[in-house]
Amino acid sequence: MGATKISVTHYVNREDAVLADVSPRRYFCLQCHVPQANAKPLVENSFESVDSLKK
Fold it and tell me: In degrees, to the nearest 5, what angle opens at C-alpha 19 toward C-alphas 18 and 25?
């Protein structure tokens, strides 16, 4: 279908056992993967890197 293959890490459970199917903890893709869009942020981001705080 042209979809990108999921990582082999998605077939490993919490005990590092390799599974035949996708690990149940990997079913909810939007927990880690988010859509990318050129949209205005819903909240202001005031993030400052550690390096900028050292100065």
Answer: 100
Distance of CA 5 to the CA centre of its chain: 15
Q: Is 29 helix (H, G, I), strand (E, B) or coil?
A: helix
Count other C-beta atoms under 10 Å from residue 26's C-beta: 18
Query: Is residue 13 a contact partner of residue 19, using CB atoms and an 8 Å limit?
Result: yes
Can you give the pTM of this predicted structure? 0.50
Per residue in 12-46, pLDDT (tens digit) is 999 999 999 999 888 888 778 877 788 888 888 88
Residue type, 47: F
Q: How many CB atoms lie under 10 A from the CB of residue 10?
A: 15
For residue 53 the two structure tokens come to 């705080």
